[in-house]
Specification:
Elements: E1 16-22, H1 23-26, E2 34-36, E3 39-46, E4 48-53, E5 56-61, E6 64-68, E7 72-79, E8 84-90, H2 92-98, H3 107-112, E9 115-117, H4 120-137, H5 146-169, H6 180-195, H7 202-209, H8 213-224, H9 228-246, H10 251-257, H11 263-274, H12 278-283
Antiparallel strand pairs: 1-8, 2-7, 3-6, 3-8, 4-5, 4-7, 6-9
Helix pairs in contact: 6-8, 6-9
Length: 284
């Protein structure tokens, strides 16, 4: 498969894109977080990698399949040089128009972890599928079109569910039933990603979750070894860094979009957690 050297990490410029990338190419995108507006299926053929999705760091290895739903923040921390990734991207407009309002996320399956490890038998099926689609897309004229890719999308969804069910059968740790502590932690993280641009205090989340503040804070620390406040800060900083690097939006407008009425407060917040001002970060 020929390498694609320009991988769109915001939205797919066409309805769909099928390709592959080496670890060296993927590491070129490790400078700052991006907000992904397209739907992403990625399959790690070889190598290993570390990446952050929203506010959680993940490690994935050979034969892992990764699902990133639209609206997620994605930061590449590191890919090994020998890595090879097959990917299929679906643009936001494709998903809106052609998936009958079906979310990219597969409810509780994807929310527990965006990564599933495949058996060698299932991994071979995904490798063959990706190789076949790549060839079909590059025929003249292409054998793929938007109508056919709707069926491909549905097939991928089905395969993901089957892989998740297989992982559950094999007692994969990702799919074990959640205890109450981890359930609270995941609910909290989802709520933070939904409201961080206006709710900056843990007490607001505790109230929304109908939990006492001490109970929420102790549960989050026990489940993640992080404070509840740190998770909010990480979400705000991830969005801020993405906007600073990927847009020309004025800093005062970025501050406002993240719930800071005063740009001076935003500048102080950003510098206290990164060591530099938003302007310096943008120009670095």
């Amino acid at each position: 498969m020929e390498l694609q050297k320009n991988i769109p990490l915001l939205d797919c410029p066409v309805d769909y894109l099928v390709g592959d990338a080496s670890g060296k190419i993927m590491n070129e995108y490790m400078r700052f977080p991006c907000k992904i507006m397209c739907g992403v299926y990625a399959f790690l053929v070889r190598g290993s990698a570390h990446a952050t999705i929203n506010i959680t760091k993940y490690e994935f290895h050979e034969n892992d399949i990764l699902l990133i739903e639209p609206g997620s923040f994605f930061l590449i921390n590191e890919f090994t040089e020998d890595s090879l990734v097959y990917y299929i991207l679906f643009s936001s407009s494709f998903l809106e128009k052609n998936t009958f309002n079906t979310r990219m996320s597969l409810t509780s399956l994807q929310l527990r972890s965006p990564i599933l490890h495949l058996s060698e038998e299932r991994a071979e099926v995904f490798r063959d599928m990706a190789a076949l689609m790549f060839k079909a897309m590059n025929t003249q004229p292409s054998m793929l079109n938007t109508e056919r890719m709707v069926h491909v999308f549905n097939l991928l969804q089905t395969c993901y569910v089957q892989a998740a069910q297989a992982a559950q059968t094999q007692n994969n740790v990702v799919m074990k039933p959640l205890d109450r502590k981890m359930e609270i932690y995941q609910d909290y993280c989802q709520l933070v990603m939904k409201h961080y641009h206006k709710w900056h205090h843990v007490s607001q989340y505790a109230e929304a979750m109908r939990l006492t503040l001490p109970h929420l804070c102790s549960t989050i620390r026990s489940a993640s070894e992080r404070t509840a406040g740190d998770i909010i800060i990480d979400a705000i900083l991830t969005d801020a860094k993405s906007q600073l690097k990927l847009t020309t939006t004025q800093i005062k407008e970025i501050a406002s979009s993240l719930g800071f009425d005063n740009v001076t407060f935003f500048n102080r917040f950003f510098k206290s957690h990164t060591g530099v001002t938003p302007k310096v970060y943008r120009n670095s």
